[in-house]
């Protein structure tokens, strides 16, 4: 594995050494249950509350507005399903987009069985939602809208602040799957205008299996998806994953520093990779917004080269075709289809996800490998 260059940081990130160091005591000697009242439990509970403060500090919110979950998928389900049912007396209408993560789309589809209706708004050619379209879709029965902060496949950043203004104007709660944006983009919840936001540790150099849901003060409390011991204010019962929570907190603290110093370096590496590929390969197409995009995201279509064949040829490079949750699919990405990318071209997409540990030397090696593989596969293609 040490010989493979990792550029799939939208799928997951390695655990930062500082995060692992913070977690280790709670995987070994400080193993207490945070619900216990003896010293082992008190030590664990203190660690949980310290982590809650670290998460809240990154989000610019109160510790009381943070609920720990098992990750982004649970947070998305808790927000959308929970708020839909909590506000059922006010209405049964939800608004989202066709380019959302399946944790949102599938949850909305499932809510149809409970009598909820969802409007799926289109996105433009860059993958952005129009605030005007959002406002036009609101009805007297609309209780919730959910739009991702930044797209996990093409990196496009949505106009979250403008959408939040529309939501506030009409008294509609606004949730964002903010997984890709948190830790890379401005993350102050009050400034963004969000009522609920999902995040997960493993996208910000923390451990897998732990995440959080931000629930703004005075927002209706989403009913739990589970029954159990009443932890996390009854919103998320279950024995707390203390080591994971500590890791999430440490990752959030690191991310706050990274946003000030690391974004421009990663964006520069991303731009160098794009430039080199563009110089030596023709018929490549950038997917997503050329400017309003995540600093490490580069999603390209290589015309005439099927993405699965492309990835198979990259023996020394770890990249993906799109969402890791859809890695078994040979269908065109639903995000690219929503953006209007022709199906044949969409099947050639490759997502490069650069991160804080990638280097200029690695960028050169990856560019050379991609150029070699694309030229070889194009030469083999029938006329």
Q: How large, in whole angstroms, is the Cα Rg? A: 21 Å
The overall pLDDT, averaged over residues, is 95
Relevant CATH superfamily of the largest domain: Type I PLP-dependent aspartate aminotransferase-like (Major domain)
| Count of DSSP-assigned helices | 13
Strand content: 5-15%
Give the topology string: H per helix, E per strand.
EHHEHEHEHEHEHEEHHEEHEHHEH
Number of strands: 12
How many domains? The number is 2
Q: Which blocks of ≥5 consecutive residues have pLDDT under 50?
A: none
How much helix is in the residues?
A: 25-40%
| Straight-line distance between termini | 37 Å
- Overall geometric form: globular
The strand order across the widest sheet is 2-8-7-6-5-3-4
Named CATH topology of the largest domain: Aspartate Aminotransferase, domain 2
- Overall structural class, as computed from helix and strand content, comes to alpha/beta
Main sheet attributes: strand count, strand direction, barrel closure: 7 strands, mixed
**Which CATH first-tier class of the largest domain would you pick?**
Alpha Beta
CATH architecture of the largest domain: 3-Layer(aba) Sandwich
């Amino acid at each position: 594995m040490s010989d493979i260059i990792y550029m799939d940081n939208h799928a997951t990130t390695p655990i930062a050494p500082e995060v692992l160091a913070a977690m280790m005591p709670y995987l070994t000697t400080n193993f207490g249950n945070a619900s216990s009242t003896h010293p082992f439990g008190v030590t664990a509970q203190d660690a949980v509350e310290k982590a809650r403060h670290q998460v809240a500090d990154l989000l610019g919110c109160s510790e009381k507005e943070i609920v720990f979950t098992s990750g982004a998928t649970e947070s998305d389900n808790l927000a959308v399903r929970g708020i839909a049912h909590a506000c059922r007396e006010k209405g049964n209408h939800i608004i989202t987009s066709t380019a959302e993560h399946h944790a949102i789309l599938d949850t909305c589809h499932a809510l149809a069985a409970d009598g909820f209706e969802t409007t799926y708004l289109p996105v433009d050619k860059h993958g952005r939602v129009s605030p005007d379209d959002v406002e036009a879709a609101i009805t007297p029965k609309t209780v919730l809208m959910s739009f991702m902060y930044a797209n996990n496949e093409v990196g496009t950043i949505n106009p979250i602040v403008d959408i939040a203004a529309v939501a506030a104007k009409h008294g509609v709660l606004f949730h964002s799957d903010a997984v890709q944006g948190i830790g890379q983009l401005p993350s102050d919840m009050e400034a963004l205008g969000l009522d609920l936001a999902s995040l997960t540790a493993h996208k910000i150099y923390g451990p897998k299996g732990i995440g959080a849901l931000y629930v703004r003060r005075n927002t209706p409390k989403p009913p739990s998806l589970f029954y159990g011991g009443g932890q996390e204010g009854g919103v998320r019962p279950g024995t707390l994953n203390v080591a994971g929570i500590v890791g999430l907190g440490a990752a959030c603290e690191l991310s706050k520093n990274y946003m000030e110093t690391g974004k421009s370096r990663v964006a520069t590496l991303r731009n160098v990779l794009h430039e080199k590929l563009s110089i030596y390969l023709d018929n490549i197409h950038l997917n997503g917004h050329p400017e309003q995009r995540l600093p490490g995201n580069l999603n390209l279509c290589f015309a005439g080269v099927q993405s699965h064949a492309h990835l198979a040829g990259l023996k020394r490079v770890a990249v993906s075709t799109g969402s890791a949750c859809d890695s078994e699919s040979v269908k065109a990405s639903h995000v690219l289809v929503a953006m209007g990318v022709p199906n044949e071209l969409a099947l050639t997409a490759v997502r490069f996800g650069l991160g804080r540990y990638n280097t200029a030397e690695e960028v050169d090696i990856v560019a050379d490998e991609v150029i070699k593989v694309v030229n070889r596969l194009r030469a083999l293609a029938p006329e």
